[in-house]
Amino acid sequence: MPQLEKLELIIQGDFIWSYGGKEPKQPIPNILNKIASEYEFIGHTADTSVETDLLSMLLNMHDYNHQNGTHRALFQIKEVLFDKFIDNGHHSHAYYNMPTKSASIGEKISNLGLLFIPEVIKAHLENYFPSIVIFHGESSAGNVEQIHIFVPESPTHTRTYVLMFGLARNYFFRAFASKFLDLAKVVVEQDSDILGKIYPNSPQKLKLNNEVGMDWVRRNFNNYPQVVEPNLSNTGLRGEYYDNIDFKNLKVNK
Ligand SMILES: [Fe+2]
Fold first, then answer.
1. If 239 and its partner were Cys, which of 68, 118, 209, 227 is the partner (CB 3.0–4.6 Å)?
2. Ligand 1 centroid to 108 CA: how many Å?
3. Assigned CATH topology for domain 31-237
4. 50: CA distance to ligand 1 center in Å?
5. Cα 113 to ligand 1 centroid, rounded to whole Å
6. Which ranges of the chain would DSSP assign to H, the alpha helix?
7. CB 108 within 8 A of CB 120
8. Residue pLDDT, tens place only, 108-155
9. How close is the Cα of 149 to the center of ligand 1, in Å?
């Protein structure tokens, strides 16, 4: 007799999914198949079991201010200029621009990642709550699709890893594609390091205007699998409006 029950697997194109034996509460998104059909697979990296709960992991990933804190040294980001947020319930898009400090030759030699950092990083994140965040990166040399996956393992541990796809427009991009994987690995290591130390028990005293992604996470997490009001589209520049909203006690939007 087998000691473990068989895990039901769902094969969708190149991807194998599982609901972990739980009752499905939402369909499997088709976005990974779409990316795999249009882009070349570069590789995977940073398969990590992080000592944090799923909510803290998601809050960090949707905290658009943490790029110039946690990842400051890596990307030399000067500031985060939030542009817009499109809220489609459990699916959303966030757009923001991050001007970077111009690096000296010395800095570029000691931190090779800086060679790939443009003057302004134009970020377009596409999010599928709760399990996927995709960074769509475009440049004249090529496009990168950096896919972050989140799997809750226990109340105190969340697994994450990165799948990367690319579309090269020149030889340079193709030759250095594996460098993007190295960069993504460092990003996940920096996040993992900070995650043990922040969020869960620290009361928030300051509300910043580009926290719409975190508001989206709290709203969806506290009401899952329902999608409730308010719709958070295009609210990145009007932060004060949300200061008094209690995301735990929102009405169901039928
Ligand atoms: Fe991060």
1. 209
2. 21
3. Naphthalene 1,2-dioxygenase Alpha Subunit; Chain A, domain 1 (3.90.380)
4. 13
5. 16
6. 31-38, 54-61, 72-75, 105-110, 171-175, 177-195, 212-223
7. no
8. 666 666 666 778 888 899 999 999 999 998 877 889 999 999 999 999
9. 13
